[in-house]
Amino acid sequence: MAFVVYAVVAMLNLISITDARNNLSRFVKEVSQKGKKYVLVRDSVPEAVVMPYQDYVKQEEEEKELWQFRFDRLIKEARKAFRKWAAGQGIDVKKLTEEEVYELIDRI
């Protein structure tokens, strides 16, 4: 292959933007068919990451799942804290309508 790979860092190959541009077809083939990942560098500074599309989709899905997990955990903690606060105020949250719960939250 004509373009130069400068180094391998954490499973990512470094390549200059110029080398990638000058050998774009081969570069894309390396990424899409062989699954290689590259960090594009300009003046020795990382500028972008190029990876196979399927890897990108998988990464996005995993990120979304992690976000959802964290969100669900925070909601659970918030509900627990709200119930504890309400009990301390002598409020039985089981008897409240959804609207009344939101009104209480807005007042806190």
TrEMBL record:
InterPro entries: Antitoxin_Phd/YefM, YefM-like_sf. It comes from the Bacteria. Pfam families: PhdYeFM_antitox. Gene3D superfamilies: YefM-like domain. Antitoxin component of a type II toxin-antitoxin (TA) system. Belongs to the phD/YefM antitoxin family. This is Antitoxin. It comes from Candidatus Chisholmbacteria bacterium RIFCSPHIGHO2_01_FULL_48_12.
